[in-house]
Design brief:
Elements (H helix, E strand, L loop, with lengths): L5 E8 L4 H19 L4 E9 L2 E9 L6 H12 L14 E7 L3 H8 L2 H4 L15 E8 L8 H18 L6 E14 L2 E14 L5 H16 L10 E4 L15 E2 L4 H4 L20 H18 L5 E8 L8 E5 L8 H11 L4 H8 L28 H12 L1
Parallel strand pairs: 3-4, 7-8
Antiparallel strand pairs: 1-6, 2-3, 2-9, 5-10, 6-7, 10-11
Helix pairs in contact: 1-2, 5-6, 8-10, 8-11
Length: 397
């Protein structure tokens, strides 16, 4: 007898969404700082509204950052080039309020508790930049080892942007959102139940023309036909009109799309945002590393689905706790998986930064369409899977 279907939804937003405008500005500023000073300490927050961007935060760096230029170039790159949008890269005001990193925080990061207690391992020198809980996740339900709902939602918003920038759908504007509901049975995705797409558009396009273009050139392209059924529900611009958008329609703030950035709600989130933060902030770097660990474990066949929680104390190098959950899919006990994690992965900030190369200016490529599941990012490698599999196989033998 088959179990009942369970519906699960995830959303994504385009790079023209007001919150993502702010995230991309923050990560562009971070990359500019790291390209000049790999040791820069950056905590950049951005807000944007009609005709204005404000950049705030704590910066400690030896390099010069031309913030107004970066803001304007980023806004234009996204597609806000026309004053008629109520927000554009040429005319928007750029305000700044920047201080140095707090010396109290800097002391804990630069001289970890372990080093002050006599530890001599170089990896014990750098303490976590904050306390908090970070989560990693991986599942074998898609080739990228990401949940299907968020994977499809990102595919839709990326396709919206591609169709706009290429001129394929010339009446689209930068803002947009997508939501996908997937039907699961016994943890296995069966089909797409609902697709919602909201696309900003020029005022003179008809609802019928917009719906036809989005259906044939976005949804039919982004969502594989095998997941669609005759009963799949599709809603395109359900309000009927979406002309005013971006920061002119809704104030944007850095770090407000943390579920879009991660696993679409399939996995808990510790609360810390990613964009605008250098890798000494473990709410970013440890989340990336936790994904790296989970993906390698799933690739090794240790479990079909793994969630890892890691917690830190500010100024301390080593995590204060780790917890693993395999949702009944583990091929070995969870306690053994924790031992594998401790054997193959070093969650001290110094080790994370060096192993993943996180002092490089790579963060702009993470900002939009999810920080996970993209090829080319160092935490998406599965280079430890073979060694993990060999240890597990040897233990069983």
């Amino acid at each position: 007898m088959n179990s009942e279907l369970v519906l699960f939804s995830s959303e994504s937003v385009t790079e023209g969404h007001p919150d993502k405008v702010c995230d991309l500005i923050a990560d562009s500023i971070l990359d500019a700082a790291l390209s000049r000073d790999p040791g820069a300490r950056i905590a950049c927050e951005v807000c944007a509204t009609t005709g204005m961007v404000m950049v705030m935060g704590e910066f400690t760096t030896s390099g010069y950052i031309d913030i107004p230029r970066i803001v304007r170039e980023t806004v234009r790159e996204i597609g806000y080039t026309d004053p008629a949008y109520g927000f554009d890269g040429k005319t928007c005001a750029v305000l700044t309020s920047i201080d140095e990193q707090s010396p109290d925080i800097s002391m804990g990061v630069s001289d970890a508790l372990e080093a002050r207690s006599g530890e001599t391992d170089p990896a014990d020198r750098i303490g976590a930049g904050d306390q908090g809980m970070m989560f990693g996740y991986a599942t074998d339900e898609t080739p990228s080892m990401m949940p299907l709902a968020i994977t499809l939602a990102h595919a839709l918003t990326l396709r919206l942007t591609t169709a706009r920038k290429s001129g394929e759908i010339p009446f689209l504007r930068p803002d947009g959102k997508a939501q996908v509901t997937v039907a699961y049975r016994d943890g296995v995705p069966m089909y797409v139940d609902t697709v919602v797409v909201s696309a900003q558009h020029d005022p003179d396009v008809s609802a019928k023309e917009l719906e036809a273009a989005v259906r044939t050139r976005v949804i039919d392209v982004a969502v594989p036909a095998r997941f669609m059924t005759e009963n799949t529900k599709i809603y395109i611009n359900p309000t009927g009109r979406f002309v005013v958008g971006g920061p002119a329609g809704d104030t944007g703030v850095t770090g407000r799309k943390i579920i879009v950035d991660t696993y679409g709600g399939m996995c808990p989130h510790g609360g810390g945002a990613f964009s605008g933060k250098d890798p000494t902030k473990v709410d970013r770097s440890a989340s990336y590393y936790a994904r790296y660990a989970c993906k390698n474990l799933v690739a090794a066949g240790v479990a079909k689905r793994i969630q890892l929680q890691v917690a830190y104390a500010i100024g301390k190098a080593r995590p204060v706790s780790m917890a693993v959950e395999t949702f009944g899919t583990g091929k070995v006990p969870d306690a053994e998986i924790l031992r594998l994690i401790n054997r193959f992965f070093d969650f001290r900030p110094y080790s994370i930064i060096n192993e993943l190369g996180l002092k490089k200016p790579i963060y702009r490529m993470t900002t939009n369409y999810g920080h996970f599941g993209k090829e080319g990012l160092p935490w998406e490698r599965t280079d430890k899977a073979a060694a993990i599999k060999a240890v597990v196989s040897g233990a069983k033998g």
